[in-house]
Amino acid sequence: MREEGIHLPWWQYLLLALADVEGNFFVVNAYQYTDIASATLLDCFTIPMVLVLSCFILKTRYRKLHFVGVAICITGLVLLVISDIVTGRDTSQASNAPKGDLLVLIGATFYAISNVGQEFVVKEFDTTEFLGMVGFFGSIITCIQMLILERQSIRWMTTEADSEVWLYYAGFVFSLFCLYVGVPQMLQKSSATMMNISFLTSDFWAVLAALFLFEAKLSALYFLAFVIVIAGVIVYHLAGNTQDDGEGSGDHDRLDERHDPESSERGSLQART
After folding, report:
1. For the chain, how many structural domains are there in total?
2. Could you tell me if 272 and 210 lie in one domain?
3. Residues 113 and 194 in one domain
4. Are residues 76 and 169 in the same domain?
5. Is-contact 60 247, C-beta < 8 A?
6. Residue among 26, 22, 13 nearest 136 (CA)
7. Is there a single domain that holds both residue 263 and residue 206?
8. Between 20 and 30 A from 272 (CA), which of 17, 25, 106, 248?
9. pLDDT of the chain, 273 residues: tens digit per residue
10. Is 253 in the same domain as 227?
């Protein structure tokens, strides 16, 4: 039974909010163990997960070259994880790189679930309902989880953190606010897969931050993995639109005609004339 005033049952929005909160939770915690360069690049794991979920949930039909591009991206991610394990990085930015890499991959999986669900809601219904319901349930989940897992951090924030720390938090919150307001608008015109592909541009900024702000020492394998991921992105773009956007558009037209008998009848009359 659907709640009055919303298009989906409340528990489905609860699950979407849970996926979104846990995605942020795992990725943010990963920064305790790995550096910004690895975390940002591994976050690309969202792309193949979104592609798979889109095929099964949204019934999106991809071309073979799309899968080739994603496979190349995954190759780069695997190489990055291997480089973290082999080199055994243990610096102030990467105290336990393999553990941090695993947390990022888990968070990316949750992000993929949230992104695909968000694409479905904003295209079928509206952005206001999604932002309102996910924001409502997400706030409740965050408060409960924070009181259970982050009590020491809350105590430190309220007793020891200085104004500089609070400014960093304010900047982070403002950035997420802009992201969550802008993403639904993008998904109405594009797809979750294309959105995450576009997010790869943030990797360039992550490399600059790692080198110049955090003075991280990146291995040659990292740069090789970075080049491979970018090559996968290029291949994905060369594949063009998904078949639902191009060749599959006729299926949508025929579906509309089945829902509109008058339109179908007009088409038949025009064909006979």
Report:
1. 2
2. no
3. yes
4. yes
5. no
6. 13
7. no
8. 248
9. 444 578 889 999 999 999 999 999 999 898 888 877 777 777 778 888 888 898 888 888 888 888 888 888 878 877 877 776 666 554 545 567 788 889 999 999 999 999 999 889 988 888 888 889 999 999 999 999 999 988 888 889 888 888 888 998 899 899 889 988 888 888 888 788 778 877 766 766 776 677 777 776 767 777 888 888 888 878 887 887 765 544 433 333 433 343 444 444 444 444 444
10. no
> Tokens in use for 155?
């105590």
Pinpoint the alpha helices (H) of the chain: 10-30, 36-42, 46-53, 64-87, 97-124, 127-149, 151-159, 163-189, 192-198, 202-208, 220-238, 249-259, 261-272
| Predicted TM-score (pTM) of this structure | 0.71
On whether both 257 and 218 belong to a single domain, the answer is no
Residue matched to tokens 């990146």: 218
Which two tokens mark 85? 């394990």
Q: Residue 182's closest CA among 136, 127, 138, 142? A: 127
User: Which structural domain range is residue 272 located in?
Assistant: 243-273
> How far, in Å, CA of 188 to CA of 190, rounded?
6
**Residue 255 · residue 103 · CB < 8 Å:** no
Same domain (yes/no): 258, 235 = no
- Measured CA to CA, the distance from residue 148 to residue 150 in angstroms comes to 6
Distance of CA 214 to the CA centre of its chain: 25
